[in-house]
Amino acid sequence: MRTLQLPTGGEMPVLGLGTWRMGENAGHRAAEVKAVREAIALGYRLVDTAEMYGEGGAETVVGQAIGEALRAGDVRREALFVVSKVYPHNASRRGTRDACERSLKRLGLDAIDLYLLHWRGSHALRETVAAMQSLVDDGRIGHWGVSNFDTDDMEELAQAVGDGPVCAANQVNLSLGERGPEFSLLPWQRERGVPLMAYSPIDQGALAEDEGLGELAARLGVTAAQLALASVIARPGVAAIPKAVRSAHLKENLAAAELKLDAATLEELDRLHPPPRRKRPLAMI
Ligand code: NAP
User: Fold this and answer.
1) Looking at ligand 1, which atom is closest to the CA of residue 49?
2) Is the pTM of this model over 0.90?
3) Where do the structural domains in the chain lie, given as residue ranges?
4) Mean pLDDT of the chain
């Protein structure tokens, strides 16, 4: 799979598995562990989770699946790129470190590859960044980044950091249904080599039902969800993390990473879902 270069060195797969809504219901746990394991067996190498998802439940699901996959020899730890996030209310200097240790325990890992501030809260950015950097220095995380940061937040972060450590990625809501970040945030990040991770890239499943997209996809011999994903990662510097539990969805989405869209298709997509003409506030889910 294609990868994106991180400004902090190393690289990140252009498509990964989301896990929001996993770990919320004990009755679904076996199916969710099975889905994450299947994803790894199929070739997914990036898994996105957060302490918020199921209040640690999703990290436990991910941890169990990764543990099983490692023991079965399906994958090597170094080949996986595990992303998790700290709650803003935990993102103090001490709180970030404590939250990270709890996440590592649930994940059953020695290190998280990319650790994000889930959204902006009341703790000073400088404090969170200092904690993040100390976690990098201690080898508890590979890289740190942010989520739900708009262009002005990224500017403020850059000011807070000064000549200090570089933010590795920003994860925001971006799909054909929500193209706002393409106006100024994505260009800002591209200029600085900071990848944008698109969350809800199928608009929480809605784009799979989009009629116009469905017609265009059928002409190309793919599904609407695949076209939605391919269009997101066709943008330079953008990765996507669709969530799926159903086996057919896992397979479809992974295959979408290999689709190449020609200029005529991208134009048609712009007609169906026009790009933003002015700055809009970042849409959060
Ligand atoms: P999404 O990935 O756009 O959509 C997930 C939904 O689409 C699920 O109901 C899934 O069904 C369905 N689906 C998946 N593949 C499909 C396909 N090929 N055809 C038809 N339906 C399909 O939405 P999301 O879960 O909101 O976003 C993805 C991930 O981004 C999250 O899981 C989370 O890791 C991350 N996220 C981050 C933030 C943040 O604040 N940083 C916010 C939201 C999400 P099944 O599960 O039944 O297969």
Assistant:
1) 34
2) yes
3) 3-272
4) 97
